[in-house]
Amino acid sequence: MNSIKPVSRRGFLKGSALLGGGLVVAFVIPGAHRFASGAENQGKVFAPNAFVRIGNDDSITVLLGHSEMGQGIWTGLTMLIAEELDADWSKIRVEHAPASAADYGLAGFGGMQITGGSTSTWMEFDRYRQAGATARLMLIEAAAKRFNVAPSGIRTESGVVIAGDRRATYGELADDAGKLPMPDPASIKLKEAKDWKLIGKPTKRLDTPEKITGQAKFGMDVQFEGLMTAMVARSPVFGGSVKSFEGAEALAIPGVHKVLQVPTGVAVIADHYWAAKLGRDALSVDWDPGPNSGLDSQALLENFRKLATTPGVSVSKAGDTDGTLGKAVKTLDVEYSVPYLAHAPMEPLNCTVSITQNKCEIWTGTQFQTLDQMIAGKITGLKPEQVEIHTQFLGGGFGRRANPTSDFVAEAVEVAKAAGAPVKTVWSREDDIRGGYYRSAFLHHARIGLDAAGQPIAWKHVLVGQSIMAGTSLEATMVKDGVDKTSVEGVADSPYLAGLAHHQVDLHSPKTGISVLWLRSVGHTHTAFVMESLIDELAEAAGKDPLDYRRTLLKDHPRHLGVLNLAVEKAGWKTPLPNGHALGVAVHESFGSYVAQVAEVSQDNLAIRVHRVVCAVDCGIAVNPMSIAAQMESAITFGLGFTLHSKLTFKDGQVEQSNYHDYQVLRLNEMPLVEVHIVPSSEKPGGIGEAGVPPVAPAVANAVFALTGQRLRELPLQLSGV
């Protein structure tokens, strides 16, 4: 658990100057700072990078080190603080905190400040509550001194401290509380679940009003006097570079000021976006395509297919798999494949940078503040603490804005450095989709043997796909003995293999020259599709109902069974459907949460129509059920996009798609009815932002098989006319 620690005198003094009167409670990773004594605080503040600020006007400001990209974390984490603080919810406001690993780093990520992996709530569940409880205890102590009563005779309610018939608001006590020494962390008692007033209550998001009125600031909205805009011409082939360029025609465009070569290509610096775009269009660049000019999707797939027939790096092995397969009554021998995928967020990448002699300021929507600071510092020659990041709202992230290379941030810093002026570097959507860092294509080859009762007795599974961790700063922790954990998650730890005496999982991680990155739900985007489709195939081979078959295989996994049973109950698994409709089911665990989904589909010529998705989720303690339901709906929408449409292909080293017209995501008219049912639980919270994605594709694929008899083993799903 990340613990609460005091901050330094220097930190206190800086915060006092910035914030004026009031109370601030900060908490950081172990060993980072120490709190100043009460005498030094002089009734002002505790730290500059505080999580909780209480002003004399009764305002309560929560600063979050996590990035808000639509997942509702501004509200969810704030609820944890407000719960223990007994705050008046109507007086709370939230701000993105500055980049500071010392204050906002996560122990689970090596002390780095990052938003990703569906970790925000479960990693911060204790720390944020402790911060609120600490502030509340200090306010009680301040009231006890003012009222001359014992703290035990004081209670709090909605931002007010009450001692009998005497009352004081938090704002009235803020200065007095600021003069007190920090309490012993061991004395901080958190509420019991039965006493929660906010946690578990459906709560509207705090950022919604600003987004509805257009007041919310995204990276693309950043604008100030003297700011110029840049667009970069990049090699159309991965790994290509500039041989030479001619910028005279670009400079002739009104509003274009400079044309500069930077490490990633050629930058056009202009007064505004349109001038920069026209200037880039007018550039003449001679590219050296490099070693990847022959990249071709079909050739890549054939190479993956050949690798799948050979032994790879061993992921897990038990018993005598080959020998037992030879004794099986029935054997399933199949191949599944998924394509490269782009993140395609609604807001394309952008980053604003201003560099002076002693400081680099960055305005962007980022998920990875710590690495952005480090890499910007390296480029500018500044220390990381001299790099100030102003995190903006993100118009979608899906992992693209949490790149271990900080690619779009690093490029923007290089552009501003070369330009010698503040510059906003903007990517078009075409740049975004063709710019690399994709979910890798994967191919799975599975051989599974069944006994006379139709139960699996041996399972041999080979995965082929690029590693997203190899060659990054995270390789040392995420790649062990040649195995990238993210490539095999969902297979290596599958409950279907857990009790199987004979199984073998191998992995090939070929290098293709294509830059790859995590995508929302990471490895589970392909492993859930394969594993849950395979279970349906095994049920068919065994002559059993796919639901009953799963129940038998999952008998020792109560949380899987719980969501499975709830989903099929709510979907009406045995209830007659309209003619031409069918149901499919899938269940999967990821990020500490368990999700089952039932999809109802029909066929319109060769098009698949998804009418309804019923979702059951067990994510442990449901901090904000409203956000959980929204995230499940969002995940299902996202998953349906690559289930039915999304696919990146390569020819002559170049991406063939460019925008939403040929890299399709789910359209509004395709959105099914979604029902979300949350399992009541007292377990520690699990992740929720990604866990709803994995079951979508297999649930739809299984429904399509039930409807048509066609077993589709490739994404996106495409019916055959045969």
Protein described:
It contains 22 helices and 29 strands. The relative contact order is 0.11. Strands 10-11-8-18-15-16-17 form a seven-stranded mixed β-sheet. Strands 13-23-20-19-14 form a five-stranded mixed β-sheet, with helices on both faces. It folds into three domains: 205 residues, Aldehyde Oxidoreductase, domain 4, CATH 3.30.365; 150 residues, Aldehyde oxidase/xanthine dehydrogenase, molybdopterin binding domain (Aldehyde Oxidoreductase, domain 4, 2-Layer Sandwich), CATH 3.30.365; 315 residues, Aldehyde Oxidoreductase, domain 4 (2-Layer Sandwich). By secondary structure, it is α+β, with helices and mostly antiparallel strands. The chain is globular, with a radius of gyration of 27 Å.
Overall residue-averaged pLDDT value: 93
Under CATH at level 1, the class of the largest domain stands as: Alpha Beta
Any idea what the CATH superfamily of the largest domain is called? Aldehyde oxidase/xanthine dehydrogenase, molybdopterin binding domain
According to CATH, the fold-level topology of the largest domain is Aldehyde Oxidoreductase, domain 4
Please tally the β strands and state the result: 29
Radius of gyration: 27 Å
Beta-strand percent range:
15-25%
| Count of all domains | 3
Counting H and I runs of at least 4 residues, what is the number of helices? 22
Domain Aldehyde oxidase/xanthine dehydrogenase a/b hammerhead: 213-291
Keywords: Signal
Protein name: Twin-arginine translocation pathway signal protein
GO molecular function, one term: oxidoreductase activity
